[in-house]
Design brief:
94% helix, mainly alpha, single chain, rod-shaped, 52 residues
């Protein structure tokens, strides 16, 4: 009975960890995409300014 309880807690913990990790990854990917988008926009507007 005690073992089953520990197992449940362990599975819950792993589930939480996975959710947290997913959120963390999504956050990083989102930030990177925003950064790339910003760089791309700057690059394109710079190209427009220089006429190249």
């Amino acid at each position: 009975d005690h073992l089953i309880l520990q197992l449940m807690v362990f599975l819950c913990w792993i589930h939480q960890l996975k959710l947290y990790f997913k959120m963390f990854l999504n956050n990083i990917i989102f930030k990177e995409m925003k950064l790339l988008e910003k760089i791309l926009i700057n690059y394109l507007s710079f190209k427009d300014l220089t006429g190249h």
